Amino acid sequence: MNLKEFFEENGTHLLEPLGSDQWALDKEKALELIHLLAKHHVGVLGGDILKYTGDEIDFLGEGWYYERREDEKQDEFASRSFIKSKETIELYSGLTDSELYRYTIVPSLLMHEYYKLEFYK
């Protein structure tokens, strides 16, 4: 399974409802994805937090962002960004209406690599 297939099978494409070519994932799948990315030494540049209100989904205007430090190796960045991303996602999962939240994840991949990353090989 590659990254594109992971998003298609587990996410909500935000192009039609919000005009954004991103995928929103629930907590379980967002945590699974950041774990898989870290396992393959791919960092997370950041993400956005969305919330369902009735049948509509919308950005909350909140999210997270990380940069790779100049002296940081790729696998160190992947590990650090995994920990920080997990903390952010779990912060929102502790809220009473946590089942309404969704998360976008931005991997530190070049666009031509984006859908080629194979997870289950």
Q: What is the structure about, briefly put?
A:
This protein is of the alpha+beta class. Helix content is 40%, strand content 24%.
CATH topology: the name is Ribulose 1,5 Bisphosphate Carboxylase/Oxygenase
What is the helix fraction of residues, given as a range? 40-55%
- Annotation, overall tally of beta strands: 6
Residue runs with pLDDT of under 50 for 5 or more positions = none
**CATH hierarchy: architecture:** 2-Layer Sandwich
3D structure, described in words:
This protein is α+β, with helices and mostly antiparallel strands. The chain has a single domain, classed as Ribulose 1,5 Bisphosphate Carboxylase/Oxygenase (2-Layer Sandwich). The protein has five helices and six strands; from the N terminus they run αβαβαββαββα. The protein has helices at residues 3-10, 15-18, 27-39, 74-93, 111-114, and strands at 12-13, 23-24, 44-53, 56-65, 101-103, 106-107. Strands 3, 4, 5 and 6 form a four-stranded antiparallel β-sheet that branches. A two-stranded antiparallel ribbon has the order 1-2. A hairpin with a 2-residue loop joins strand 3 and strand 4 (56-65). Helix 3 (27-39) packs antiparallel against helix 4 (74-93). The longest helix has 20 residues, at 74-93.
